[in-house]
Amino acid sequence: MSTRIPGRALRSPVLLSVLGALVVGTVFLVATGSDPFTAYGAILGGAFGADGIGSTLASATSVIGLAVALAIPLRAGLLNLGGEGQLVLGGITAAVVGLYSPLPAPLTVLLCLLAGTGAGAAYAALAAVCQNRFGVPLLISSLLLSYPAVSLASYLARYPLKDPASGLPQTRQLPEGVALPEFGTSTVTLGLLLVLAVAVAFCFVDARTATGYEIRMSGLNSRFASYAGIDRPRLTVRLLAVSGGVAGLVGAVGVLGFPYRFTDGVLTSAGDTWTGLMAALLVSAAPVGTVLAALFFAALKVGGLNMERVTEVPSELTGILQAIVIVFLAARFTLKRRRATTVAPAPAEQKESV
Q1: Tens digit of pLDDT for each residue in 31-77?
Q2: CA 161 to chain centre
Q3: Would you say 45 and 52 are in contact if contact means Cβ atoms under 8 Å apart?
Q4: Calpha distance 228→58 (Å, rounded)
Q5: How far apart are CA 112 and CA 143, in angstroms?
Q6: Of 239, 176, 255, whose CA–CA distance to 202 is shortest?
Q7: Could you tell me which residues come within 8 angstroms of residue 188 by beta carbon, excluding any fewer than 6 positions away?
Q8: pLDDT in tens, 71-93
Q9: At 282, which helix (H) or strand (E)?
Q10: Which letter does DSSP use for residue 168 in this model?
Q11: How far is residue 322 from each of residues 22, 171, 189, 295, 350, measured CA to CA in Å?
């Protein structure tokens, strides 16, 4: 048993895809006259060194949260492309509550988190309702609903809630004390623990509950799941609501951290929603794998900036590595499926052999 597990891990498509991407990246670096060892060392040092670990964890808070949010419906074969809208709506809702809540600061923080989560959940559930009641595919409804949410948040940050003392499109700063606790002098907040708690809950539900079994069966074969009595439309609404709620929570966490306000475009400028989606797709939405893949991509992004400073290699190389990992993994699964189709004998051939 102990020898089989490491061997199976070494043959993992994900690990082989990552190694393949590193090999291609090495070729690019050598072709440009750069030292691959220095470049990769700068990525590791920038991501996990004493000066970079805080930035990696701060970035991972958003990437992991959004990866888990998008992996929850993906586990059932549902693709939520409206993560950006749900993220932004959760952030602006938390900002409004934080600015106008009459409650004490600790209770206001809790209310901001709940409000952001609720706003994201309700908006994502609307996309599921559009599919169930009006026949609009979830891919289209979730994606298109992002634009009104982002536009509404932009309008509020630029006009009714705009800070008159600033020339930037941002809301007024939240009142004193309305913020998530930070760890030491870093920008890492309690939001990281909240996101990890959501990931742990996802792992538990997926592996230990009947709901998790229904979700996995729906993802493997939705028609069989329907025959088994699983209410697919109802499950879609529930999963999209949870997915949007987690995305809204990430948006609220972003507003309750530095600089303690909602700034138009900041939550989406890093592209964490699509990075999280890539992380979830990379491991087929497996809970633990989603978290690890999201942490890997966050480390690549932060380490890439340090690589650019140390070696003058553009940080875009890390984006290329991410894309190559996805391409290699997709190609491997496609070749495996074609090989299985080619090797499997036709029914007529089976009868002749009998």
Answers
A1: 888 889 999 999 999 999 988 899 999 999 999 999 999 999 999 99
A2: 28
A3: yes
A4: 43
A5: 25
A6: 239
A7: 54, 57, 58, 61, 182
A8: 999 999 999 999 999 999 999 99
A9: helix 272-282
A10: S
A11: 10, 34, 27, 12, 43
The tally of CA atoms less than 13 A away on the side-chain side of residue 241 is 10
Query: How high is the pLDDT of residue 31?
Result: 86
HSE-CB at 231 with a 13 A cutoff on CA atoms is 7
- Cα 222 from chain centroid? 24
**226-233 — which CB contacts under 8 Å span 24+ positions?**
233/128, 233/131, 233/132
pTM of the model: 0.90
- What is 291-349 written as a DSSP string? HHHHHHHHHHHHHHHHHHHHH---THHHHHHHHHHHHHHHHHHHHHHHHHHHHSPPHHH
Structure tokens at 352: 């002749």
Confidence bin at 157 (pLDDT 50/70/90): very high
